[in-house]
């Protein structure tokens, strides 16, 4: 009976969860000698409270935007300014600074990374400026978003040079620079860890906690062979495969179509789980299957990274860091599953639990497949 309760909760929670919901707003902070300038780009639909509170809604495209009336577009501007005022703050020596956000344009500021087309997510750009005070102090950016809200992709520029792109997480206070005082010296930018570690975090968080479909896929692998060595072999093989297609996708060598890739990923989750119902041990040919599915999942990862501002001339660091993060998340899932079930695997009832949980994952994967097709 406890097993049935756990499975029921898993199925119902998966049906009401959105998989691979990775959202970021993009902000460029320019620190000039006497003034700070902000350009922030966000999905236009996210400005509306009813859209950002419903995870099941697809992100609105340019086609959606073109059908809106003038008054509906005006409401987006009002709600967008209200939203940014609530979540984005500058802190000077710990004290909040009031920013006046001004709507700049519909579309994108990140032309080197994005293209605004009718079938892509409709974007909007906001700007704000803040002159430095006469006294010297520490300037920080506070992203006061909820845990399930989007993070910030931050690009800082000063004296004509851009720093590495970093991710500012929900609720994080990020140090920007020391400003004010002598205007001859200009702002002194804060020092941060290399962006490689930020990409590791991005890859890890893409799986835990954001990638529920990926988590279920890894659990599906675990349920057939709950032993550490073969599990690590499968995980590394899967990572090697998705590294290949991820790199080719981000480099725009191979095209991606999320409308095709996402249903196939969901179907792969169901397939692996269904196999668990008929297999009792790892077969050699399953390793080949895992490699093939890794190639498929890599294109899914690529579609996610294509929404992030990745410099096409510097792909090695983000791709390597992202893959390391994904692999660390996979190993964390496997070790966690081993810790929870290792004591039970040779005892009565585990076989029934394995089959029941595999069935639950298979049903969830089939549900997602149908949901992503329609």
Keyword list:
alpha+beta, 374 residues, 48% helix, disordered N terminus
Explained architecture:
With 374 residues, the chain is α+β, with helices and mostly antiparallel strands. It folds into 2 domains: 2-18 and 211-373; 24-193, no CATH class. 48% of the residues lie in helices and 18% in strands. The protein has 11 helices and 12 strands. The chain has helices at residues 2-15, 49-52, 62-66, 70-87, 195-207, 212-224, 228-250, 258-276, 284-305, 316-341, 350-373, and strands spanning 24-31, 35-43, 88-92, 95-97, 102-106, 123-131, 137-143, 151-158, 161-162, 166-168, 173-179, 188-189. Strands 1, 2, 5, 6, 8, 9 and 10 form a 7-stranded mixed beta sheet that branches. Strands 4-3-7-11-12 form a 5-stranded antiparallel beta sheet. Helix 6 runs parallel beside helix 8 (258-276) and helix 7 packs antiparallel against helix 10 (316-341). It is elongated.
The share of residues in helices is 40-55%
Average pLDDT, rounded to a whole number, is: 82
Order of helices and strands: HEEHHHEEEEEEEEEEHHHHHHH
Strand content: 15-25%
What count of structural domains? 2
Number of helices: 11
Spans where pLDDT lies below 50 across 5 or more residues? 1-22
Distance between the termini: 35 Å
Structural class: alpha+beta
Shape: elongated
Rg, Cα atoms, Å: 23 Å
Tally of strands: 12
